[in-house]
Design a protein that fits this description.
With about 100 residues, this protein is mainly α. The chain has 2 helices and no strands. About 75% of the residues lie in helices and about 0% in strands. α1 packs across α2 (about 45-85). The longest helix is centred in the middle third of the chain and has 42 residues, at about 45-85. The chain starts with a helix and ends in a 15-residue tail after the last helix.
């Protein structure tokens, strides 16, 4: 990737992260203001803010935990396969690295 294209991509990524962070902050502040009675609660903004935060938090959770869970399931499946077929000699997987 050329340098101008890379800097443009990085700038767009940074702007996108900033926009999402501001939306999350606004949703939290709005819900806190409604909860403490500073702002009159209207159902639509409360529902939209809550749905946005739940979706955002679920996306963060899945984004961080899915790779770990997939790796765990992959290793468990490989170890189960090794236990169920005793006729094949057990050799270490070259992809597994000692921790």
């Amino acid at each position: 990737m050329s340098e101008p294209s890379q800097s443009r991509t990085r700038w767009l990524r940074d702007v996108g992260v900033n926009v999402i962070a501001n939306l999350v902050a606004a949703a939290i502040i709005y819900l806190l203001a409604v909860a403490f009675g500073y702002v009159k609660a209207h159902p639509v903004p409360v529902i939209v803010s809550t749905a946005f935060l739940i979706t955002f938090l679920a996306g963060i959770t899945v984004g961080y935990t899915a790779p770990v869970g997939i790796e765990y399931l992959w290793k468990a499946r490989r170890s189960k396969t090794a236990r169920t077929s005793p006729e094949t000699p057990s050799q270490p997987d070259p992809q597994d690295k000692p921790e």
